[in-house]
Amino acid sequence: DAGITQSPRHKVTETGTPVTLRCHQTENHRYMYWYRQDPGHGLRLIHYSYGVKDTDKGEVSDGYSVSRSKTEDFLLTLESATSSQTSVYFCAISESRQDLNTEAFFGQGTRLTVV
Amino acid sequence: AQSVSQHNHHVILSEAASLELGCNYSYGGTVNLFWYVQYPGQHLQLLLKYFSGDPLVKGIKGFEAEFIKSKFSFNLRKPSVQWSDTAEYFCAVKAWEYGNKLVFGAGTILRVKS
Residue B34: its chain A contacts at CB < 8 A? Predict the structure, then answer.
């Protein structure tokens, strides 16, 4: 398995509190992605990063922010959690350059419940 | 905007039946195409991928997919399914022109009856 670690794996938080999820990789891949998975919606892209300090929005970015200060870490922050953000969150990594083009490798997921 | 469409949300088959799951994407240019599988309670695993070359791609567990550029399609097939193929299947597309965003379809839940 690719070296991807998500933390925490499970979290219950209250509405209105800030929450940060961490994705850590040991593969030195350039691209990192955050998705949320909800029944009937598949995986929807929240934000992604194409390098240190380089990030862009996905299709469901409202209410989320990200930061990537090091190649190996990609943080997802819910500034003020809402019940609609209850979901399973997956981090993924991949590489795309002339000498190496890979599929995405996924972390184990974080189950977040906002009560 | 990029989009990926999977035609069936739920499919029920008997063991030994043939499987075809449809996937269409919305944009031209150079694309990388993927099918992932998610077994209950697990994370996504790659079934197969297409980057270039032969448009008929073979993956793990007897799955294959065909890239038809003119139809913007990448359909997944298996000649004879097994009970252990019960899972959710996701098509995904990545394109250089869109910054290598990896976009997924909504998924197809396959249930194989023994």
Answer: 103-104
